[in-house]
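User: Hey, my collaborator sent me this sequence without any context and asked if I could get a structure. I don't really work with proteins. Can you help?
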Amino acid sequence: MNDGEVYLRKATLSDVNLLFEWVNDKDVRKNAFDTHTITFEEHSSWFNRLLNGRNQAQYILMRGLKPIGQIRLDIDCSDAKIDYSIANDERGYGYGKLIIWLVVKKVREDFPEVNRLIGRIKPSNVASFYCFEKNGFEEKYQQLELNLGTLKASGEMDDIHPKSAGETVRKLIS
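Assistant: No problem. I've predicted the 3D structure and written it out in structure-token form, which is a compact way to encode the shape of the chain:
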């Protein structure tokens, strides 16, 4: 890491353009659960709701005066979901681990009602998995999904349910 104190600061309205740039980074979109490119109108509307809401907190990771990442908390009762990203040119220096560690400290200080932090990541996002794991997060379950819209369009429906499935089910219940 380069010299300069590294800390979290609360996001302000002046961060809207920076966060818009980061949210549309190709790797951020690839690792997002909703991969579509975000328009500025969508982003600014969402960001204004975030800043005026009570159930979200948005922070900017700073190194000295330079913003190098962002982390958001979506708070629901005693749970808080974490969403974060590191600026493209700052990746690979350990800031992912650090930003999570800093937000854990922040939650313990500022959100005493939160008892559980949740990091949802795609299986392909190995770097984020590592960052959460190194901060004491444990994998609790895996989620499998089937996109029926894509399947119907490709005509591969028959490949999902092999003809022997009925026989297998009969054996299991008999």
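In plain terms: The chain has a mean pLDDT of 87. You can pass these tokens on to your collaborator as they are.
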